[in-house]
Amino acid sequence: MRAIDTNILVRALVQDDPIQSQRAQDLLNTQTVFIPVTVMLELEWVLRSRYGFTPKVISKAIQELAILENAVVGEQAAVISAASKMKDGWDFADALHHSLSEGCDDFATFDTTLAKRARKVSKNSPPVVTI
Q1: Could you please report the per-residue DSSP string of 17-39?
Q2: Does residue 79 contact residue 62 with C-beta atoms inside 8 Å?
Q3: Rounded to an integer, what distance in angstroms lies between the CA atom of residue 40 and that of residue 93?
Q4: What is the DSSP letter of 2?
Q5: Long-range contacts made by residues 122-126, C-beta under 8 angstroms, separation at least 24?
Q6: Residue 123 pLDDT class (50, 70, 90 cuts)
Q7: Residue 50: CB partners within 8 Å, gap ≥ 6?
Q8: In whole angstroms, what is the distance from residue 125 CA to residue 103 CA?
Q9: pLDDT tens string 49-104
């Protein structure tokens, strides 16, 4: 299995370099790949900050990558959960931190906006408390 970097996913999704984009597509279509959770976090940041993609588009791309048959995604369930939370206005990093905290008693923060958003999620997720 080959682990891949964020730039492979960016080239495959954005198609902004014909040669590298084709090589990235070929890799994703022909090999089993490992996508670390940190790559997914960086991918969201790059698509948002460098390319100006909307949260809806980024969420869909991340969810589709996370369920590719030939991809093993680190912390897959948390990545899918975080991408879903983006549709409710969450920042992806906050959503990922929260999703990775499943099983904890709560998630402490100073971010009151995050706490408000968290009230809308399922009961399986830890409550967010401001301190």
Answers
A1: SHHHHHHHHHHHHHS-EEE-HHH
A2: yes
A3: 10
A4: E
A5: 125/81, 125/98, 125/99, 125/101, 126/98, 126/101, 126/102
A6: low
A7: none
A8: 7
A9: 999 999 999 999 999 999 999 999 999 999 999 999 998 899 999 999 999 998 99
Axis crossing angle, helix 55-66 with helix 37-49, rounded to the nearest 10 = 150
**Which pLDDT score, from 0 to 100, does residue 99 have?**
93
Global confidence as pTM = 0.91
Residue position matching structure tokens 């090589």: 23
Q: Which has the closest alpha carbon to 44: 28, 66, 15, 69?
A: 66
SS3 128: strand
Distance CA 2, CA 23 (A): 14
Tell me the average pLDDT across 93-120: 91
Q: What share of the chain is helix, strand, coil (3-state, %, to 5)?
A: 55, 10, 35
Q: How far is the C-alpha of 77 from the C-alpha of 79, rounded, in Å?
A: 5
